[in-house]
Amino acid sequence: MEAMTSSGAELLLLHNAFIVTMDPQSRVFRDGAIVVNGDKITAIGQSSDILRQFSPFSHQIIDLHGQYVLPGFINTHVHTSQQLARGIADDVDLMTWLHHRIWPYESNMTEEDSYISTLLCGIELIHSGVTCFAEAGGQHVSGMARAVELLGLRACLTQSIMDSGKGLPEYWGNRTTDDCIQTQKKLHEKHHNTADGRIRIWLGIRQIMNSSDRLLTETRDMAKELKTGIHMHVAEIPYENQFVVDTREVEHGTVTYLEKMELLQSNLLAAHSVWVNETEVGFLSRAGVKVSHCPAAAMRMLGFAPIKEMLDAGICVSLGTDGAPSNNRMSIVDEMYLASLINKGREVYAKGTTDPTALPAETVLKMATLNGAKSVLWDNEIGSLEIGKKADIVIVNPFSWPMVPVHDSISSLVYCMRSENIISVMCNGRWIMKDQKILSVDEGEVISRAKLASTQLLKKAGIQIPSRMNVL
Ligand SMILES: [Zn+2]
Known about the structure:
Elements: E1 11-20, E2 28-37, E3 40-46, H1 47-54, E4 60-63, E5 68-71, E6 73-78, H2 94-107, H3 111-127, E7 130-135, H4 141-151, E8 154-157, H5 170-173, H6 177-191, E9 199-201, E10 203-205, H7 213-226, E11 230-234, H8 238-248, H9 254-260, E12 268-272, H10 278-287, E13 290-293, H11 295-302, H12 307-312, E14 316-319, H13 324-327, H14 332-345, H15 347-351, H16 361-368, H17 370-375, E15 393-396, H18 409-415, E16 422-427, E17 430-434, E18 437-438, H19 443-461
Parallel strand pairs: 1-4, 1-5, 6-7, 7-8, 8-9, 10-11, 11-12, 12-13, 13-14
Antiparallel strand pairs: 1-2, 2-3, 5-15, 15-16, 16-17, 17-18
Helix pairs in contact: 3-4, 3-19, 6-7, 14-16, 16-18
Bound molecules: zinc ion.
C-alpha cells in the first residue's frame, strides 16, 4: 500500500546523499537522507535513522549514490527581461551600453518578449541550481510572472521604475511619480503571493539618477505599508556618487544620501554597492541593508566592491548574476567561483598582496544560500535545509570531470563545480529539472522562439551590432 501523510501529500525520501544543510549548526551529513512532504522538508538526518523511521510511509525512495544535496541557490540580482539582449553590448563603454543598446532594447519590449526572455533566462538559472531569484526590474512584470509560474521557480519580481533623468526613451521619460507608484500598487495587488506563494512583488528604484526625491520617499513608505522589499541599483560608478554630491548636497554619494532620506532599512536590497566608503559601510551595516554582489558585472563595468569589509561589518551580502548584457552568463555557480577569486585578489589594495584566506568556500556557499534568502526576506522558509522549510533543493553530481577527485567537498563546490554538475532541481516540493531536463517547458522550443523574438526586437529598436574581425 502506498503511504500517504495526514495532509494527503506523498512522502518522498532521498537517501545515501552528502547533504550540506546550511542550517545554524552548519551540519553536513556524509550519508544523509531528507524527507519531503508536499512542499516542505519533514525530516533530515543520517540515512539509517531516516530510512528506519520513514521508509514504511514513503511513496517514493530514491538512492542518490553519494550525490550532493544542497539548498536551492538564490540569485539576488537578475534582469530576466535582458536575456534576449545577451551579446548586444560587449566591449563597449558604459554610455554606449546604456543609451545606444540597453535603453532602446528594453523600451521596445512587449509583454510577450518579456515572457520569452524570462523563460530563456529561467532555464539557464535552473541549470545552475537556482530556485529563487530577485528581479532587478524590467517593464512587463505580468510577462515575467507568467514565465516564473510556468517554470516552477520562486521569485521576487520588480518593475523598472524611473521618474526623472536625462536621455531616457520617450515613454520612460514621461512617467510621473504617481504613475510609478500606482502601477506598482496594482502589480502588487495582482501578482503578490500568486503561483502557490512562489511569486512576491517588490518595489523598484532603477537608480538614484533616475529618481526624484518624492519617488524615493513614497517608495520607502509604500514598501512599509505593503510589507515588501525595495530593489535598487546603488553606488555603481563614481559618476553616480559625484552626481549625488552635485545635485543633492551631501558629502559623499548615494548611500550617504539614502541614509539622509531614511531609505536605508532592512528591506532594501542594494545591488552592486561598489563605490561606498568606510562610513557608508557603517550606515549599511547599522540599518541591516542587504547587498547583492555581482562579481562578473562588477569586473566588467563597475570595479571592486569592498565585500570583505562589508562581511566583516556584519552586512548580509548575497550573490547575483546581473543581466545577460552585463555578464553573458546567468550561472550562479560561476559567480560563486568569481566571488571568491576576485575578493582574494582585491586584497592587493588593502594589504599589498592577495589574501588566499579572504572569502573562503563556506562563506561563499552561505552567500548563495542563506544570505540570499535573508536578502529576499524569505529566510523563514528557504535558504537552508531544515525541518519545516520549503523543499527547494539542488542535487549535484560530483563524480564527473569538473569535480573529480574530491578531497574537500565544501571547497570543491565553490572552486570546481560547474553548471554541468547540477543534475536535478526541486522548488516548492516539485521537481523543475530532473537529470538535467527542464520539466515544464520544451527547451528547444523556447530557444527557437527566443532567437526569433530577439532578432525582431533588435530590428524594431534599430540596434546594430558592428561585426568584429574580418568576418567574410
Ligand atoms: Zn542590474
